[in-house]
Amino acid sequence: MFFLAGKFILALLLLLVGIKALSRNLHQLSGGRFHLLLKKATSTPGRGFFVGLIVTIFLQSSSLVTVMVVGFINGGFLTLTQGLSIIIGANLGTTITSQLFSIETGFLIIPLLLAGFILLLTELFLKRSFGGKVLLSIAVLFCGIQLLIVTLHPLADTVLFRQLFAFSRGALWKGIITGTTAAAIIQSSSVTIGMVILLAREGFLTFPQALAIAVGADLGTCLTSLLAAIGTIRAAKRVAWGHLFFNMCSIFLVMLFWNPFVRIAEMTSGDVARQVANAHALYNLLGAAFFLPLVDKYAILLQYIVAGQKDKLTRRKKLGI
Q1: Residue 152 has pLDDT above 60, yes or no
Q2: Which of 85, 97, 255, 321 gives a 20 to 30 Å CA spacing to 169?
Q3: In Å, how far are 2, 6, 42, 199, 301 from 151, measured between CA atoms?
């Protein structure tokens, strides 16, 4: 237990150090040019959405994308609205990964470290910046994510998880809580949904039970971005909480129309495993379609919900409190 706790603390430290180093080194490398490029690529909510979608498909990790968004906002490269648009796209992008062969991001760590060290040595020799520190910062981020997964992943084979899946039977809210808890512990919605698909295929879970757990898994992975936002600026904290509230609202909306949604999803395939994957994608697509047109207003709302001490004092003065 002490060994696991030590690895967990080390993973958090790598995550936090990686974010802060990435923000600082991008500033030093770009001199403002990277900011302008990223700002142009995410100049509208639609563009930001597609950036999040494509990057998540490429990296096979919505958690990594949301963590990097927190880092970019903390470094001043993205606004809250742009960050929220990317995260909405990332939520949909991760559903693609559940239908494709899983690609571990860990294989990128060694190439990034080697490339980063080579570029860093070149920088020292030529007295010019080539982005070596940026690559090393990203590698540290990847190490933090992977170490967090490796530390918590063995828990998936314990009696606790078997009891969680048994608990999920009988009510929709039980399945959602099960998925949220499992994904928060494992730090991977893809792993959680993979377990759910296997259990459903073997007949241990019905399709509605499996779908409820899959929906809850999206909420569980919000823990990563919340942890990453510790010690960051207020806007970065807002996008992390915005990710959580977005998933909570999506769950609430699908619960209102649960039975029709289940029937529609069942018509997409005769195989229960495909039904779970398709329903998960449809759920996130509907959530994106609902939130993306309202992302500007959502960003304004978050400024009131997640307010700093100065904002609270200003608001009290306006109200005469």
Answers
A1: no
A2: 97
A3: 12, 9, 34, 23, 36
